[in-house]
Structures are given as structure tokens and as C-alpha cells.
Amino acid sequence: MRDWLGEAKAKQVYLILRDRILSGAIALGAKLPTEHELAAVHGVSRVTVRRALGELARERLIERRRSAGTRVIYRPALAPMISDISGMLASLADMGRRTTVKLLSFDYVRAEGGVAEALGVSSDQMLQRSVRVRSVDGEPFSYLTTFVPERISLTFTRQELASRPLLDLLERAGVKVERARQRIGAALATPDVAKALDVRTGTPVIELTRVVYDRSGRGVEHLYALYRPDRYAFEIDLVRSGTRNRVWSPIARRSDKAADKAAKHPIIKSKPADARPPR
Asked: Cβ neighbours of residue 47 under 8 Å, at least 6 residues apart?
């Protein structure tokens, strides 16, 4: 029982310090308090603190030297990948061109369960399943599992999927992408995911499930994605609209290319003060 309690307390101290380091509250190069001081602050023994610091050192977040003490060596990314929720499909195409991808698996499986239901296909149909890891500047940030109906996936090869954005391949196949529905939550990294994203097993990750539909309403892609929260974030721009019951409404961001074009050829339009912005 005592060992179990000691491990639980060590994990608690580890998580608190890890969160402060990753959030920037304890900056790169900062010196941590001594084991004795940390033990007093957290109300635990020095052995417990030593366990927590050992885990942080194994994750290369801190460096421990007998003569110099313990310092933070974690260097955060200059800027995490940002996805605009309201302009999602445009963001996907842009992300595919700004990042690199590693294809871990590529095969065909029979449609079943929630994936089959979401795509609106029967259990006798085959789906192309792929697992990819996407990186920016050599640092992995997303673990992507996608399912595409066989009738569409036969138009592209394994090599193409490893080198081109899936959205581009769908459009090349003649798919007229119209809309998508997505749900965002949280999950814990399994061993395979943890290895691919270079994190510990059980690390919290952002969970996203997305189903993309064509103009006829048929499902053309099912995506289950897991993101490192320190390297990826979702944002949305909102504007207050309406006259009586004012609400927050999303506005889609323009891509950099569209913004540059607008700057060169501005178009000025007038609209009533209470007009609702496009959704």
C-alpha cells in the first residue's frame, strides 16, 4: 500500500511540474527548487520528489546536475499549429501543404460499427484505412486514422497518400466536398499513439472525429485524429450579431493567399448594421 501511495504522490508532483513546464510557467533555463524545498511545498517526501523529477528528466524536460541543480531544458515550439474551426476545409488544405506526413499503415477493411454508420455504408462494403503521423519542422503533432469508401480510394495509391493531402486526392477523384461534421474531445495516448507522437503512454491528447460529405450527402471520409495539445490548437473567430437577441456567430478566416489577393484588389461592400455575418 505504501509503495502504491508513493507512486500516486510522485505522479501528482510530476503532473504539476510537467504542466507548469509545458505551459511556460517555468521557462527554459529556469532552475527548479531543491528536492527539500519541493517536498515541503507539495507535502511529500524527498524520495517522492526524486521519483517525479526522474520522470521529467526521462522526458527530457529537465536536466539534473549534482553541482548545478535542476534546470528546465524543454524548448517549446516557436508556434503550435493552429486550425480555424469555422474555416475547417480551407485549413485542412493549407495544413497539408505546410506539414510533412509519415504513412504508418495502408490497407482495406470491411465497414463496420460507428464508422460504417457515419459514412452511411453497409457492412458488405470495403473501406480503405490508413494511419498517418503529421509533423511540422520534424516534430510530430497528429496521429490520423482515416477511412475512405473503396469506390473513391481506388483512385489513389499508397505512395500518393504518403505525399499529398487526402482532401486533394478526394477532389482529384471527382468528389465535390460540400460539408463536414466534427466533434472535439479529449483522450489518453495509447502505447502506439504515444510512440508515434513522442509522448508518454497515458498523456492527455486532443481527440477529434470528423466525417466529410459530398454534395449528395454521402460520406466520403471518416477521420479519427489525436493531437499533441502543446503542438496543436483549435481557434475560432466570433462576432456579436443580431439586433435584439445578440449572439456570438463564427466567422471564417481567409487563407493567406486570399488575404493577399484582397489586399491587392480590395472590394468594399456596404451592409446594414444589424446584418448577420456569414456562418
From this structure: 6
Look up residue 14 and give its three cell numbers: 510530476
Q: How confident is the model at residue 248 (pLDDT cuts 50, 70, 90)?
A: confident
Taking the whole predicted model, whether its pTM rises above 0.70 is answered as no
The confidence score (pLDDT) of residue 14 equals 92
Per-residue b or e along 51-73, where b marks 16 or more CB atoms closer than 10 Å to that residue's CB: bbbebbeebebbebeeeeebebe
Mean predicted confidence (pLDDT) in 231-243: 83
The three grid cell numbers given for residue 66, joined into one nine-digit string: 549534482
Boundaries of every domain in the chain:
2-72, 81-235
Whole-angstrom distance, CA of residue 230 vs CA of residue 11: 20
CATH architecture of the domain formed by 2-72: Orthogonal Bundle (1.10)
Q: How many CA atoms lie within 13 A of 218 on its CB side?
A: 10
pLDDT digits (tens, 9 = 90+) for 64-120: 988 889 999 987 765 555 565 555 555 555 565 578 899 999 999 999 999 999 999
CATH superfamily of 81-235: Chorismate lyase-like (3.40.1410.10)
